[in-house]
Design goal:
Blueprint lengths: L42 H16 L1 H8 L5 H22 L10 H22 L5 H8 L2 H13 L5 H21 L8 H21 L5 H11 L1 H14 L6 H29 L1 H6 L4 H13 L7 H17 L2
């Protein structure tokens, strides 16, 4: 792949449609060793799916703050994954989806370690000492980190214009978030930076796998694979710190399980398969600003006057990245 990792460059992408070969009945032959022909998702459709994923992810930090009102960080992380696994596993069972090929399991394990366990745990622990606004500083680096990880893992070679727009967008987001948080680093910064690395790896591997399996199966099998860890963790977390349920904590946990951990990743991986990991990742430049808006509406935090200017600059950068090869 020369210029980018866009899956629209070929007609061999399997996306999460009901008729996709990956959802064949048990008596159907095993999936072929190479991606099977499928109707490709248009660039605009793929971008829309990825954007829906970003919108879902933008609520993750506010929802986590709500969930932490009634349970410990460990309980939040483990329970959200268990609930999401029940949803995903139920769908896999009802549709009688065959197990992925052996060659895909290592990638699924990376997704499980990165987006099912690593990122949720590290960010939730960080949010015990950092505000959602401060956490947005690090999230602003995620698009650039994911694009870099994709370049290493898949051999993608975005243009110089793409990298320049990505860097400008990252600088705008980080500068805005640092300015509005007073520029003081929080104690959870190391956790947040570690979360960046594991999440970028999980996104990259999931986007790559979504060219071979429907996106919902990628995250579905990752959640199922992590079940032994998350169920055990849930039991220990609940025994050490019982639930103190409130309306906010229940609503936050449900969104984390259904929206952030499952449905958001379904459309996100499908969008990545359609338009490429690098291009999809740059849509996340808008995520920190969306998170700040949700923080104002849901948590009562104050949005600084510079937000509209930063938002406009980020939108310009996103437009440039989506138009480059």
């Amino acid at each position: 792949m020369r210029d980018n990792d866009s899956a629209t460059a070929t007609a061999t992408i399997a996306v999460g449609t009901p008729e996709a070969p990956a959802t064949a009945a048990p008596d159907a032959p095993a999936a072929p060793a190479t991606p099977v022909p499928a109707r490709s998702t248009p660039l605009t459709g793929g971008a829309l799916l990825a954007a829906l994923g970003v919108a879902a992810f933008s609520l993750t930090f506010p929802a986590t703050a709500w969930a932490l009102e009634g349970m410990s960080a460990w309980t939040v992380v483990m329970l959200r994954s268990v609930l999401a696994a029940v949803l995903a596993g139920g769908a896999l069972a009802v549709l009688r989806v065959r197990l992925p090929e052996r060659r895909h399991w290592s990638g699924i394990a990376v997704v499980a370690g990165g987006v099912v366990l690593g990122f949720p745990l590290l960010t939730t622990l960080a949010l015990q000492t950092s505000t959602t606004s401060h956490a947005a500083v690090v999230v602003g680096l995620l698009p650039l980190t994911t694009a870099a990880c994709s370049a290493v893992r898949t051999g993608a070679r975005p243009s110089r214009t793409f990298w320049a727009a990505s860097l400008v967008g990252a600088v705008v987001v980080i500068g805005f978030a640092v300015q509005q948080s007073g520029g003081a680093p929080g104690r959870g910064d190391l956790l947040l930076f570690a979360a960046l690395l594991v999440c970028a790896a999980g996104y990259t591997e999931g986007g790559r796998l979504a060219r071979h399996l429907p996106g919902w199966q990628v995250i579905g099998w990752a959640l199922v694979l992590a079940l032994p860890v998350t169920v055990t963790g849930t039991v220990f977390a609940l025994s050490a710190d019982p639930l103190r349920l409130t309306a906010h904590s229940v609503a936050g946990l449900l969104w984390l399980a259904v929206g952030s951990q499952f449905l958001g990743l379904v459309v996100w991986y499908r969008g990545m398969a359609a338009i490429g990991i690098s291009k999809a990742s740059q849509l996340q430049l808008a995520q920190p600003l969306l998170t700040l808006v949700w923080s104002v509406l849901l948590l009562g935090e104050h949005l600084p006057p510079a937000a509209p200017v930063a938002a406009l600059a980020v939108l310009v950068c996103i437009a440039v990245t989506q138009r480059t090869r």
